[in-house]
C-alpha cells in the first residue's frame, strides 16, 4: 500500500502540481485518505494570511483531509526572493517535522518537490538529500516538450543512482503542438526503467479539473 510518495519533475513548470493533484484524486477514488504536501513553494503572492502559493492551494483543495495552509507548506517564497535557505539545517528539520505530522493524519502523503531533482534547499543540501533521508519512493513527471526527453532520462537515472525506488513516471503534455508526441512516449517507455502510470493531456486550467482517471495506480504494485 502506498503511504508516501515524492513527486519530482524534469524541471520547473512541467506539471508536478497537476500530477500531484491527479495522484490525490486517484487515491481518494480508491478510498485512501490522502493529503498533499509542498514543503517549499516559490512564486507566491502576499495575502492577508501571509505569502501563499497557488500550487499549495491546489493540493489543499484536492486533499481528502481538511487542513490549514500552514500544515501543507513550510516555506513560501516571493518570486524575487532568494531560494536557498541558511545552511543550518533548520529548513530540513521543519520539512521533516511537517511530513511526520501529516503521515500521522493521512493514509498517504503526496509530497511535491520544487524545481528539479537536485534543486538546492540550502548551500549544503539538495532536495534529493532530504528525499533520500526520508526514504520516499519517487514518481517522475515528464513535461513533454522540446528537450524533455534528455531531462527525463537524466532525472530517472539520478533518482536510481541515489538509491530510491522509481515507482513510475507520468507524461504531461504541456505543449499541444509538439510533433511526434506518440513516438516520444514510446521511446521514453522503453528507456525509463519504471512503468508509465498515465498521460495527462493538454487541458486549460488543469488545476481545477478531475484528473485522477488519467492515472493507473495498479501499475505501482507491479
From TrEMBL:
<keyword id="KW-0460">Magnesium</keyword>
<dbReference type="GO" id="GO:0004141">
    <property type="term" value="F:dethiobiotin synthase activity"/>
</dbReference>
<dbReference type="InterPro" id="IPR004472">
    <property type="entry name" value="DTB_synth_BioD"/>
</dbReference>
<feature type="binding site">
    <location>
        <position position="17"/>
    </location>
    <ligand>
        <name>Mg(2+)</name>
    </ligand>
</feature>
<dbReference type="GO" id="GO:0000287">
    <property type="term" value="F:magnesium ion binding"/>
</dbReference>
<keyword id="KW-0479">Metal-binding</keyword>
<dbReference type="GO" id="GO:0005524">
    <property type="term" value="F:ATP binding"/>
</dbReference>
<feature type="binding site">
    <location>
        <position position="112"/>
    </location>
    <ligand>
        <name>Mg(2+)</name>
    </ligand>
</feature>
<dbReference type="Pfam" id="PF13500">
    <property type="entry name" value="AAA_26"/>
</dbReference>
<keyword id="KW-0436">Ligase</keyword>
<feature type="binding site">
    <location>
        <begin position="13"/>
        <end position="18"/>
    </location>
    <ligand>
        <name>ATP</name>
    </ligand>
</feature>
<dbReference type="GO" id="GO:0009102">
    <property type="term" value="P:biotin biosynthetic process"/>
</dbReference>
<feature type="binding site">
    <location>
        <begin position="112"/>
        <end position="115"/>
    </location>
    <ligand>
        <name>ATP</name>
    </ligand>
</feature>
<dbReference type="InterPro" id="IPR027417">
    <property type="entry name" value="P-loop_NTPase"/>
</dbReference>
<keyword id="KW-0547">Nucleotide-binding</keyword>
<dbReference type="GO" id="GO:0005829">
    <property type="term" value="C:cytosol"/>
</dbReference>
<comment type="function">
    <text>Catalyzes a mechanistically unusual reaction, the ATP-dependent insertion of CO2 between the N7 and N8 nitrogen atoms of 7,8-diaminopelargonic acid (DAPA, also called 7,8-diammoniononanoate) to form a ureido ring.</text>
</comment>
<feature type="binding site">
    <location>
        <begin position="201"/>
        <end position="203"/>
    </location>
    <ligand>
        <name>ATP</name>
    </ligand>
</feature>
<feature type="binding site">
    <location>
        <begin position="172"/>
        <end position="173"/>
    </location>
    <ligand>
        <name>ATP</name>
    </ligand>
</feature>
<keyword id="KW-0093">Biotin biosynthesis</keyword>
<keyword id="KW-0067">ATP-binding</keyword>
<feature type="active site">
    <location>
        <position position="38"/>
    </location>
</feature>
<feature type="binding site">
    <location>
        <position position="55"/>
    </location>
    <ligand>
        <name>Mg(2+)</name>
    </ligand>
</feature>
<dbReference type="GO" id="GO:0042803">
    <property type="term" value="F:protein homodimerization activity"/>
</dbReference>
<protein>
    <recommendedName>
        <fullName>ATP-dependent dethiobiotin synthetase BioD</fullName>
        <ecNumber>6.3.3.3</ecNumber>
    </recommendedName>
</protein>
<feature type="binding site">
    <location>
        <position position="55"/>
    </location>
    <ligand>
        <name>ATP</name>
    </ligand>
</feature>
<feature type="binding site">
    <location>
        <position position="42"/>
    </location>
    <ligand>
        <name>substrate</name>
    </ligand>
</feature>
<keyword id="KW-0963">Cytoplasm</keyword>
<comment type="subunit">
    <text>Homodimer.</text>
</comment>
<comment type="pathway">
    <text>Cofactor biosynthesis; biotin biosynthesis; biotin from 7,8-diaminononanoate: step 1/2.</text>
</comment>
<comment type="similarity">
    <text>Belongs to the dethiobiotin synthetase family.</text>
</comment>
Amino acid at each position: 500500500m502506498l503511504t508516501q510518495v515524492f513527486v519530482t519533475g524534469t524541471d520547473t513548470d512541467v506539471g508536478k502540481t497537476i500530477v500531484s493533484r491527479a495522484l490525490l484524486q486517484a487515491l481518494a477514488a480508491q478510498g485512501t485518505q490522502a493529503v498533499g504536501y509542498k514543503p517549499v513553494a516559490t512564486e507566491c503572492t502576499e495575502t492577508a494570511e501571509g505569502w501563499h502559493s497557488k500550487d499549495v492551494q491546489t493540493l489543499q483543495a484536492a486533499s481528502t483531509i481538511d487542513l490549514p495552509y500552514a500544515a501543507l507548506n513550510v516555506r513560501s517564497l516571493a518570486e524575487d526572493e532568494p531560494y536557498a535557505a541558511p545552511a543550518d539545517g533548520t529548513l530540513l528539520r521543519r520539512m521533516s517535522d511537517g511530513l511526520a505530522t501529516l503521515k500521522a493524519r493521512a493514509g498517504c502523503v503526496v509530497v511535491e518537490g520544487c524545481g528539479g531533482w537536485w534543486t538546492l534547499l540550502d548551500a549544503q543540501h539538495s532536495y534529493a538529500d532530504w528525499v533520500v533521508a526520508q526514504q520516499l519512493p519517487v514518481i517522475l513527471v515528464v513535461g513533454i516538450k522540446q528537450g524533455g526527453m534528455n531531462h527525463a532520462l537524466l532525472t530517472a537515472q539520478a533518482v536510481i543512482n541515489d538509491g530510491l525506488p522509481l515507482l513510475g513516471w507520468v507524461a504531461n503534455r504541456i505543449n499541444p503542438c509538439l510533433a511526434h508526441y506518440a513516438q516520444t512516449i514510446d521511446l521514453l517507455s522503453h528507456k525509463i526503467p519504471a512503468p508509465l502510470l498515465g498521460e495527462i493531456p493538454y487541458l486549460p486550467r488543469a488545476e481545477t479539473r478531475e484528473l485522477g482517471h488519467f492515472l493507473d495506480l495498479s501499475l505501482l504494485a507491479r
